[in-house]
Amino acid sequence: MIIAFLAMAWRLPLKPIQAYRSFVLGGGIIAFFILMKAIFWDLEYVKTYFFNHISERLIVANSEKSILENVSYFLESTHK
Amino acid sequence: MTDFMNKHLTSTIKKHKSLWLFCLVYLGIFFLKLDSIPMIAMDEGWNAFYAYDTFGSNPYDLSSTIQYQLFFLYYFFLSIWMKWFGISLIAVRSLAVVIGLVGLIGFYKCLSRLTTHKGIVILGMTLFTMTNIVVVTFRWGRPEGMVLVLLIWALFFLIKAIQLNNETQLIGVGLFMGSPILIQE
Q1: How is chain B split into domains, by residue range?
Q2: Which stretches of chain A drop beneath a pLDDT of 70?
Q3: Is the CB of residue B86 less than 8 Å away from at least one CB of chain A?
Q4: Predicted pLDDT at A80
Q5: Does the pLDDT of residue B79 top 80, yes or no?
Q6: A27 CA to chain B: closest CA distance, Å?
Q7: Within an 8 Å CB–CB cutoff, is residue B2 touching chain A?
Q8: Contacts of B185 in chain A (CB under 8 A)
Q9: B182 touching A, CB under 8 A?
Q10: Res. B91: pLDDT tops 80
């Protein structure tokens, strides 16, 4: 959705630079909130669980599995 | 002050008569049909459990490693909802109905901005409430409905930005398009 919006925003009858700036500002507020929450409230969780969860599913240079298998594992994996 | 509020409320109800009628019909049908789903999805119990465990007042140490700490919004609202209305399947599912109501209001506002023709607005609202996505997601204790509602409000701000030729409205689009990430991991 976000990529689609970024791709089409320049076609809007608005000033493109200001349009992109406003959109990124709105999204940036959310990103900033998540970052602050991660740093000040959930640092231990981010260090121990969150990064592991992501990195386990993003390793594509694994000799045991092909890239396709890794992508499939990532798409089908769940946090539960 | 009270007179002013009453007048304002009355004029708002008169102005958006079709919306209030739709909201009443929607709430009536969706609340009455909450227990008509012939199964309980595993995630419904799971979501309720997690909301109760993390944001509620669970006295037992569950030592759970499953966490949604960064992306918490649905569970946070669900825990508040369960504190107010108790812990039951109907209570958990009724939050989805209310979330749907917020989406319905957003959709009405989008349509009202696009056309002044009441018939088209009513037709649009009818089609929206009858879609299988709405019928399914706004009756289950799952977070997907909340994502849809936030995207509807993002669409509203996009329409508003184009109509008013005002780029700052796109801050709203960024906020509502970015906030679904907070709902669930």
Answers
A1: 2-38+88-182
A2: 56-65, 74, 77-80
A3: no
A4: 46
A5: yes
A6: 4
A7: no
A8: 79
A9: yes
A10: yes
